């Protein structure tokens, strides 16, 4: 009998934000690609003792962390002290775990069963030069834990549930993009720009996104001495995506103190969605009819850039009187009667079974 269960959730395909549309300028210029700025971050935001029950005398402490850009070298910002009931300092050291992301305090020798210990950690994020994230300059963590005479556990994989959904991702390429006349699409996003307009893609990719959730509470009876690689220590989740097959994970349970591990067979989810994954031809007609006052255009030039002076009307356009009245009669503005929104505000998705278009307001 397999120690896991699987439930597949199929949701309606949703569009993913893939276009940013610049507000139309008085003299349009070819659109250029721009990349969002990613700040440099390293530091600790929160640290919490995982164990609620007693740990084995030969066990270790495991601490959940909330952190940014940390690695083994980030231990330089941490100072940990463990003392017994008589305030005697217990030799031991903090270790960094990348998978799952955690801290481990390992005593230099076996602890005393029946004893209660106190843990104190000081965090100093000021040691990280050039940090661009809003992290606390420093903080402290205090916790107590007890020790029993239980033996270290054998590793085991807990129950794992799975769910999968299909997402249609529009291709980021000007050659297969159709826009209301006057829109200026950009690939990427720039925080200094204002956005407006409407475009839809004619090609996309069907992607299966799967979430695997492990019952980490099953480890509590062991003093949380077992970990699960590939799964988040806080949520118990592992995520995987694929466009050519069902996404899978291979759970690997291990004992924190010794590294002893057991590898489970691969678990997959979304097998029933595989035929909808991969390259897809999208029909944007309905979405464009609802937004454009006249024939949508493609303005990709020979170099693959978007040039509003070289637009070609879409030969697949079919007028829809009701959609046209809605697009132009509600106060929309734009060249050629385009139902493009004015710049500003939040982006809103128009999801439908064929177009998967995105309206950036």
Tell me what the structure shows.
With 361 residues, the protein is mainly beta. Among the domains are: 20-36 and 167-206 and 279-359, no CATH class; 43-148, Sandwich (Immunoglobulin-like), CATH 2.60.40. Helix content is 4%, strand content 35%. It is built from two helices and 26 strands. It has helices at residues 285-291, 321-328; strands at residues 20-22, 43-49, 55-56, 61-68, 78-83, 89-90, 92-97, 102-107, 116-124, 138-148, 160-170, 177-179, 184-186, 198-201, 203-214, 226-229, 237-242, 248-249, 252-255, 261-263, 267-268, 278-281, 297-298, 312-313, 348-350, 357-359. Strands 3-10-9-5-6 form a five-stranded mixed sheet, with no helix packed on it. Strands 2-4-8-7 form a four-stranded antiparallel sheet, with no helix packed on it. The radius of gyration is 27 Å and the shape is elongated. It starts with 19 loop residues before the first strand and ends with a strand. Residues 1-34, 191-195 and 323-361 have low confidence and may be disordered.
């Amino acid at each position: 009998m397999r120690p896991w269960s699987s439930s597949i959730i199929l949701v309606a395909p949703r569009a993913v934000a893939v276009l940013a549309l610049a507000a139309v300028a008085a003299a349009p210029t070819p659109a250029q690609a721009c990349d969002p700025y990613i700040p440099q971050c390293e530091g600790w935001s929160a640290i919490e003792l995982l164990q609620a029950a007693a740990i084995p005398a030969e066990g270790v402490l495991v601490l959940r962390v909330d952190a940014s850009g940390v690695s083994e070298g980030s231990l330089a910002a941490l100072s940990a002290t463990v003392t017994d009931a008589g305030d005697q300092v217990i030799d031991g050291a903090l270790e960094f775990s990348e998978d799952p992301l955690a801290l481990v305090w390992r005593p230099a020798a076996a602890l005393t069963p029946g004893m209660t210990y106190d843990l104190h950690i000081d965090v100093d994020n000021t040691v990280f030069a050039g940090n661009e994230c809003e992290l606390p300059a420093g903080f402290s963590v205090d916790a107590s834990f007890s020790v029993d005479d239980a033996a270290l556990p054998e590793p085991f994989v807990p129950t794992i549930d799975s769910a999968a959904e299909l997402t249609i991702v529009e291709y980021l390429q000007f050659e297969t993009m159709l826009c209301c006349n006057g829109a200026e699409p950009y690939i990427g996003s720039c925080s200094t720009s204002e956005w407006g307009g409407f475009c839809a893609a004619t090609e996309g990719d069907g992607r299966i996104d799967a979430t695997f959730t492990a019952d980490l509470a099953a480890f509590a009876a062991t003093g949380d001495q077992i970990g699960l690689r590939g799964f988040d220590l806080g949520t118990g989740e592992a995520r995987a995506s694929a466009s050519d097959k069902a996404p899978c994970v291979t759970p690997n349970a291990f004992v924190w103190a010794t590294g002893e591990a057991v590898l489970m067979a691969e678990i997959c989810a979304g097998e029933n969605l595989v035929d909808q994954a991969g390259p897809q031809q999208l029909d944007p007609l309905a979405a464009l009819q609802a937004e454009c006052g006249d024939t949508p255009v493609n303005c990709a030039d020979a170099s693959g850039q978007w040039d509003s002076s070289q637009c070609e009307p879409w030969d697949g356009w079919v007028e829809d009187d009701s959609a046209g009245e809605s697009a132009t009669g509600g106060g929309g503005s734009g060249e050629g009667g385009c139902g493009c929104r004015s710049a500003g505000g939040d982006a809103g998705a128009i999801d439908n079974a064929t177009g998967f278009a995105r309206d950036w307001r």
